[in-house]
Request: fold
Amino acid sequence: MSFENTPLRKMDYSFPHYLNERKNSINSHMQGNGLPDYAYSEDYNLRKQLDAIPHLYEIGYNICSTYASRTIQELNMYALAVGPKQFPEIYEIGKECARRLGIAVPNIFIVDSPAINASTIATDDVEPVIMLNSALVERYTHGELQMIIGHECGHIHNKHGVYNTLSTLILNTAIAHAGGISGLLNSLVTSGAALALNHWSRAAEITCDRAGMICTDTVEDSYYALAKLLYGAMFHNPEINLDEIEKQLERQQQTIVRLEMLTSSHPSIASRIATQKIFGECDVFYSWRKDMKCSDLKLISKEKADALCAEKLKILKGGDSNG
Reply:
């Protein structure tokens, strides 16, 4: 029997063909504004407003380029560089998240810290770096680490670098000891610009939570990874009631305390879980993760998902999505 004319014989298995198919697949998810299709619409809209603030990007770029380079040098002294022969399981997660989103594999460092946290530093001309605190690595499951590392890769994928790092420098209490730098930043950036950075940063976090979900084994991994930020993942307790956390959000939105979010760079964890559950029903998510689609799941559009998320993130009643 001859196989010369069978369909399999006509298929191209070459590596260049694979690369071309991969490129086309990634490009199919990019929008006209240069952002991936999963990005929260407010992320883009608010970034345009930041771009309109005179000299803000220029100031941020110059500060962040120096800060990023110095931080990489310090990490090489005080943190553990992850690689194929050093915490290879973490490296493989970073590699897979980068592959799925279509970005280069970032540098990953593990930092000795009891705080459950992760962060990213990136500018246009400095290699991106993801920092994972040791407490997070210790207490998170493989799937939850996919969410966290995927979230940080989302900052890189969406080109959040300059504004994200500038926001961190201004707002993160971790730099309180560097009074000189903090004072300089406060003099360079007006309070209005700081509020604008906060507003954008909260929207950017929703975008990156979506990137994290795209990188997870299950949608539940993304919910529980966020929930653990509420209680510190004590005793590795997996018995978290997500419905009860959503009730916390309802209580939060009914009190004046919600106004504190105006000065925060991140939405509340309860609201982030609520928006993740909405994205878990979005058609764009399943265009990235066709392998996770349930046949009986009724999907909503990206526009509908963004509108529902805006309601969960609303701080000022009758105002815009998050303040």
